[in-house]
Amino acid sequence: MPNSFWLPPECQEGEFVVFPPEERHHILNVLRMRPGDRIDVLCLNHRLVVELQAGEILKGKVISSSEIPAPPLVLDLAQSIPKGRKIEDAIRLCSQIGLRRIIPFFSLRSVPKLDSARTQEKLERWRRIAIQESGVSGLPPLEVEVPSSLREVLALRPKYQLGLFFWENGEKKLKEVVQEQSNPENVLLIVGPEGGFSPEEAEMASRSGFQVVSLGERIFRTEIAGAIASIFLFSHWGGLGE
pTM of the prediction? Predict the structure, then answer.
């Protein structure tokens, strides 16, 4: 059961927030909450405590508001789209851990091939999952970007202080990078599909300014590799809370 509800900014009207119909059903019929009960709401970068109000349209009066502090480290994950619903597992894990953004992309060995209609359908589902998970984590929803290509992801490198491209044959281990690097403010991680990246893709990443690294001796499933790397980085550079 979620501890918080995420609402877009347009749902806040002065000292009140208005719950969409689907949230109204969940709050009243599933959680069985009633007017006068209080509930946590996430809106933009604020955590609100609101008191439910009676009426046909479910509203909540804002009782208190506190800013969600910016994390000391911002992590974004570019995840090569795996088979089935494994990308959904990655979204859930990244939401819980506290990443800012996930960028699905297609690489040379990606198995799924989506047309534009299916891509939009998948994207909407992925974003719903991210919003649902924010209610559990108490953090703003993970941003799920429109699927792109590896080349487009590599072009994002100048926007980040550090770029890490994970490959089983990486030149360095992640632990070495952490030991050598002073605390960056933002990092882009790139994780490949089930079959891994090709040597040509790793070379292209290196030329684009990414450090080609491995997670060590163990091989992890693609849907959890990014989460494991993120926890490791957060534990060293901050971002998991006190």
Answer: 0.85
